[in-house]
Amino acid sequence: MISSAVLSDSLERDIFAYRSQFPALKDRTYFNYGGQGVLCEAALDAIAKNFRHIEAIGCFSNAAGEWMIAEYDATKAAIAQEFQVSPNTITLTENTTVGCNIALWAVDWQRGDRLLLSDCEHPGIIAGATQLQKRFGIEIDYFPLTSTCNSSVRDSETVVELVVQHLQPKTRMVMLSHICWNTGQVLPLKAIATACRDRHVLVAVDAAQSVGVLPLNLDDIGADFYAFTTHKWWCAPLGLGALYIRSEIFDQVEPVFVGWRGLTSKTPIPQWRQDGAKFEVASSTYALYEAMRIAIATANSWGTQQQRYERICQLSQVLWQKLNALPHIDCVRQVAPESGLVSFRINPKTNPKIKSVQKSYGAIAKQLESEHQILIRALADPDCLRASVHYLTSIADIDRLVSIIEILV
Ligand SMILES: Cc1ncc(COP(=O)(O)O)c(C=O)c1O
Q: Which of 236, 303, 374, 385 could form an S-S bond across to 295 if both were Cys, CB 3.0 to 4.6 Å?
């Protein structure tokens, strides 16, 4: 059992001082990092500064071009460093879903090939898979990950066996989340990737909820594609994401959308760059890149990836225990959280005073926001509320949420 005491008073004082860099956390209790993170002042300043800078040095001038190339290189290097991989493995995108689409469409699908998904994937991913089915006549299989939501990442065998059991001779790719967006379950990705590679099946990962939460060494994990956004747990601006492609599969996969960013300057065109840029298309908002690097550097000024992950787990366990202690609340997972996502629902049966849940979770989330300035997400499947606990979260935030939930129904 983890108690609030593990998170010492002095640490909580430090986090309060550190949090003053994030204007959105002032006078607000923020539990929506799984939707979008909050920007620090320095990142906000850099966005405005860089838009002005481009105007000042001359739009489309040689100087602006050189500045953009330097921004691009520095940003890829900063991302790659976080995952201990080469910048050549990184493709810059706009968000997680674009990266997942690049992975899904990179395969030379043939009629009758199979794609395996978990039953916990995000609607955007299911939409992509369905388009592949329509276009190429592939089959989509689902494995019942939800049924394992009470196993911890340490019981990795159950989940790996489940994936392996659902592989068929024509399965060419498995696509799954590293952390499930609805339950917060962490998947044993390295073991899954190894099992799939042994069977010549590609592994594509939706990493929307894991980047900025888990300590990550992507070459070591060995997944073939790892797609993420930076605007959630990394607290970078909206509109910037990236995709890691394992260098060993680079020659086997092809982009669908292409453009000048993927080309070398040699003629005759096309001659492709042999790095992640091959999967990029054209102009993007370079003025945001510095803010992303600042977001990463700011996180790194508060301990290591491992230390931040430990704090997230400790805090989410505190929240999970306090919610479970309320008579009318059930947490969706029966085991202590291993990520920052804590989903819970109101259970009228355990509190005789409540005859039924009077309001939808969407209405409860709206009420929490309008009356208490508590920002939390309502989910449809499972029907519940989801609190995202970040290393920036404080014990006071948790106590406030729990005290309001206690009296809300
Ligand atoms: C697991 C998962 N996948 C994909 C997405 C979509 O992310 P993006 O808007 O970066 O494409 C989300 C967003 O909440 C998510 O939680």
A: 236
